[in-house]
Design a protein that fits this description.
The protein has a single domain, classed as ABC transporter involved in vitamin B12 uptake, BtuC, CATH 1.10.3470. The chain starts with a helix and ends in a 10-residue tail after the last helix. The protein has 329 residues and is mostly helical. Helix 2 packs antiparallel against helix 11 and helix 3 crosses helix 11. The mean pLDDT is 88. 76% of the residues lie in helices and 2% in strands. It has a two-stranded antiparallel ribbon with strand order 1-2. The radius of gyration is 20 Å and the shape is globular. The relative contact order is 0.20.
Length: 329
C-alpha cells in the first residue's frame, strides 16, 4: 500500500473514531451521522465529478457547475409538481423518474449550447474562461429568479422512496437517503467504467494526455470536448434533481455545493476521477461528523461544519501538495 492509500486510511479511521466517540458509543447516533455523511458525499460527487472530468480534459474550471445543479433542482421540482403531468401520471414514482430524465435533458442541452456558443472561442484564453463561467453562473441565477421567483420551494408531492423509512440500530432512516447513496455509488462505478472500459473513455483519457496526437489520428477532439462538457453539466443537473426532494429548490443551492466541489476536485488531485470519488466520500463524512460535533451543547459553533471541506483540503495539501491522486511535478 503506497503513501496515498495510507493517508486515506488514516483520515478515514480518524473521522470514524471521532464520530463514534462524539456519539458516546451509541451505534444509532453514529449510524445517523455516517448515513448523513454518505448522503452529502454523493450529492457533492454529482457536482464535483463533472467539474473534475471537464477540468481534466479541457483545463476549464467551470464556476457555473453549481448553477447546473440548481437548474436540475428547479426542473425536477417543476416537472414532478406539474398539475398537467400529475393528471397524466398520477403515480409519484413514475413522475419522479420523468423529473430526473427531464433535468438531465435540460442540463445536457444547456451544456451543449454553453460549450459551443460561449466557451469554445475562449479555449486559448484561460482567464477569459474563468470570467465567462462566473458570469454565466450569475446570469443563470438571475434567470432562475425571473422564471421561478426568489422564493424557495419545498418538495411536497410524495413518492415511495421519499415517504419510506427503515430501521437500523433502533434508529429510523429515510429510504430516500439510502436511494441517493446507492444511486451515487452506481454513478461512480458507471462513469468509472465509461472512462476505463469503453472506446470513448479511452479517447477522453488520451485527450487528457495529448489532445494534438488524438486529433492527428483523425478523431474530432472538439466533439469530444462538447461531449465531456455536456456530460459534466448533465450529471450536475441530475444531482440537483436528486437533491430536490430532500433540500427543495432554492437559488442558494448553486453556491452551497460549488465551493465544496472545487475543494474536492483539488483534494482528489486535479483531473483525477478516482481521486474525486474518494475525496467526495471523505469530505461528506467529515462534514457530517463535524456538523454533529459542532452542534453539541459544549461547542455550539455550526460554522465549523461549513469550514470542514477547506480545512480538510489544507490538511491533505500540507502532506501531499498535488492532492491525493494528482501528478507530482
Amino acid at each position: 500500500m503506497n503513501k496515498t492509500y495510507w493517508l486515506i486510511a488514516v483520515v478515514a479511521v480518524a473521522l470514524l473514531l471521532f464520530g463514534f466517540v462524539n456519539a458516546n458509543g451509541d451505534l444509532g447516533s453514529f449510524g445517523i451521522t455516517i448515513m448523513s455523511g454518505l448522503f452529502q458525499a454523493m450529492l457533492l460527487f454529482l457536482v464535483a465529478s463533472g467539474l473534475s472530468i471537464v477540468f481534466g480534459l479541457m483545463d476549464v474550471l467551470n464556476f457555473a457547475q453549481g448553477s447546473f445543479f440548481m437548474i436540475g433542482a428547479y426542473v425536477g421540482y417543476a416537472v414532478h409538481h406539474s398539475p398537467q403531468l400529475i393528471s397524466v401520471l398520477p403515480n409519484g414514482d413514475v413522475r419522479f423518474v420523468v423529473s430526473l430524465l427531464a433535468a438531465v435533458l435540460v442540463g445536457g442541452v444547456l451544456g451543449v449550447f454553453f460549450e459551443r456558443a460561449l466557451l469554445r472561442p475562449l479555449y486559448a484564453r484561460p482567464i477569459f474562461q474563468i470570467v465567462l463561467t462566473f458570469g454565466v453562473a450569475l446570469v443563470i441565477g438571475e434567470l432562475i429568479k425571473v422564471v421561478w421567483t426568489p422564493t424557495p420551494y419545498s418538495w411536497t408531492a410524495m413518492f415511495t422512496a421519499r415517504s419510506g423509512f427503515f430501521t437500523v440500530f433502533e434508529q429510523q432512516f429515510s429510504t430516500y437517503r439510502l436511494f441517493v447513496i446507492g444511486a451515487g455509488f452506481l454513478l461512480i462505478i458507471g462513469i468509472g467504467l465509461l472512462l476505463q472500459r469503453t472506446r470513448i473513455g479511452i479517447i477522453i483519457r488520451a485527450g487528457v494526455e495529448d489532445s494534438q496526437m488524438v486529433e492527428a489520428l483523425g478523431i474530432n477532439v472538439r466533439a469530444v470536448f462538447t461531449l465531456v462538457f455536456t456530460l459534466g453539466c448533465a450529471v450536475a443537473a441530475l444531482g440537483g434533481a436528486v437533491a430536490a426532494p430532500f433540500l427543495g429548490a432554492s437559488t442558494g443551492l448553486a453556491n452551497q455545493f460549488l465551493l465544496s466541489a472545487i475543494a474536492i476536485v483539488v483534494l482528489g488531485g486535479l483531473g483525477s476521477y478516482g481521486g474525486t470519488a474518494i475525496a467526495s466520500i471523505l469530505v461528506g463524512v467529515a462534514v457530517a461528523v463535524i456538523q454533529d460535533w459542532s452542534a453539541s451543547p459544549g461547542v455550539n459553533a455550526p460554522v465549523w461544519a461549513s469550514l470542514t471541506p477547506m480545512l480538510l483540503l489544507v490538511l491533505i495539501l500540507l502532506i501531499r501538495p498535488s492532492g491525493l491522486f494528482g501528478k507530482e511535478n
